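#onboarding

Welcome to the new folks! Below is a worked example of what a typical request in this channel looks like: someone posts a single protein sequence, and someone else replies with the predicted structure as tokens. Don't worry about understanding the tokens yet, we'll cover that in week two.

Example request:
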Amino acid sequence: MFLKKYSDRFRGKTPVEAGKFAFEVIGRRVTRLALRLRDLICVSFDQDSRRPDRIWRWRISERFVDGYIPSDSWSKLSEQICSHKFDLLGSGLKSVNRQSGINGQTTFPKSGSWLNAEINRANRSKSRKIWQLIFQGPWAANTYTPINWQVDFKSNARWDSRTWYMDVAIGAKLDADIKVPWELARLQHLPQLAISVCIAKSENHDLEVGSVKNLVAEIRAQILDFVATNPPRFGIHWRTPMEAAIRGANILLSLDILHSAGVVLDRAAMEVIEGFIVAQTRHILANLEWSEQARGNHYYANILGVLFAGCYLPDTPEVSVWRAFAVHQLVLETDRQFLDDGGNFEGSTGYHRLTLEMALYGVALTVGFDGEQISQLKSYQKSLLSVRPPFPSSPLRLYSDEERVTPYPQKVREKIYKAICFLSDITRPDHRYTQIGDVDSSRLFKLQPIMRHGREDTVNPAGVISASAGLTSDICEEQNHLDQFVIRQLAKQKKITFFDGKDKRYSAESFHTVAAKFLKEFKESDNRCKRKIIIPNPKGISDNVRFASYPEFGLFLLKEKEFYLSIRCFDPTKGGAWGHAHDDNLSIELVVDGKSVITDPGSFTYTANPKLRQLYRDAKSHFVPRVINCPAANIADDLFEIKHLAKAECIYFGPEGFVGRLVGADWIVERMVVLSSNSIEIFDRTNGAKIEPLHVLDAKHNISDGYGRETKSPICAF
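Example response:
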């Protein structure tokens, strides 16, 4: 088992290197066993003593102004959160209150005695004390029913909170989706409740969002509830460091928003919360999702979570080195995870949005550093931190940005600029982004949910785009959106120059030459090797059409107010780690006159339904040209692996359309898209092999409206 799992890692190593690697792996396994034994015997909660005089570093200095406070829909949202009702990942609005199991009643003694059956023996006493705090102090709750943090409330499958975190098997429960309880436990609803406190305290608003006392008590109670029922390193919520990182950032931002409204929690609660954030951060650092060969958005989230902790917690030498490490790694990973054209290296627009959002908040936190924090980047105690990624001795390198210094070099700032352009360009006329590759609707924050048909629109990128507007004047217009306000506050009202003004759009050869050759070969081809599809476009293409090319990511776009055309065309041998990509090379997404004609269906599900997961990744779910019995990709049994067997190249992209070629081992298929005055013409041809039918025209499954939501809209509507 050991050799099978690590065989690829041994390949190419000398005997000495292989022996060293094997020794390291065995050492980590022995260490893990020792830690498991320690946690089963000893209290795993943070045991550091807290000094009451320690000062937290709050960032938000202004209460939300009227221009940013949302409409009356906020009242309904805050009421649902306080009632513990959530609609996550296609669940529909459901109550996630924990059931006591006694005659169906929800009675949970304030003493916490009910926790004896929920918590491992070593942590029960501490958990009970934390639970009791919910009903004590100036922000005490009169009554409170705990949330069932371990349940997938779509399937009602439940995980055991007494399981040591590394013993939790992801995807082991049939039809259960571990992402559902993970999504709830990110606590992204707590900043929304904190915003409700700002509304309740505002003299210029008459929204009924509840009393300040009840709202603050609910925020405090939910945090303490989570801490009490999820001891460090036990249960599913410690299994993946990414989840802990996002959760920590949302807790800290919630407290910051409360502080901006003049609300400070009691000392006892803050000591528990500080201990929890410290424990989570140490856990993240001890379990970083980093490797030399493969790391992606999970690791990026890890280091952003460490940065949030390092920026908010009372300063200590340990916190200072956390901050320096996170800054160092964020700069390196931003450069690594965004390609030169700005697209995300994982081949997914959903993870592009998530990683860009994290990048923007990371930049905001560093831009907002005071003089002391900047100086600490030059001098920190590296010996206080032991992590696997290479971490240099101080100081970190700093760069000039107009009147300030930044750890981000110009190259990385330009990548962030291009990444913002990318997200803006893939936004369709319906204000939703094209779902290329895996899309799990992940966000860092959900400060101002955008509603669509009565539900949160999880594929609307407006929050992230508005966040960029709060950080730079390079690209976006001002927008009245909470993300813009918050990120501006985190950056202490400072701006950063991302780009030097250069821009890259499209370059084209003579379409006439390319098209003439293609059409000649098309005409001469056997009918079994070609097809032609004509899609009406009565309004035609105006002179205002915009072009955008992202050749490294592999996406070419033409768009205007009610027209949108994207063509996927990428070379998997260049850059990128394509585990989150789909078998979609040369696929098309098309919106005509504001109506979707051809749509990438998205992902819909991950581990909860492996068969459906693979179907949404398959070429059969995409509007692609293929050769019969010659697959362009091999979708492995592993749900997050795909082996591409062909590479595509763009031959022409410009005002007249697109021409691209997909080349396999011994076959070629070409696609030409022609924009005529009143139609879009699609020509597909092979180099002599029989062309495969467009299976997507007969697809029984429909477009996924973000993760977990299958709509009634077909992939092709013509």
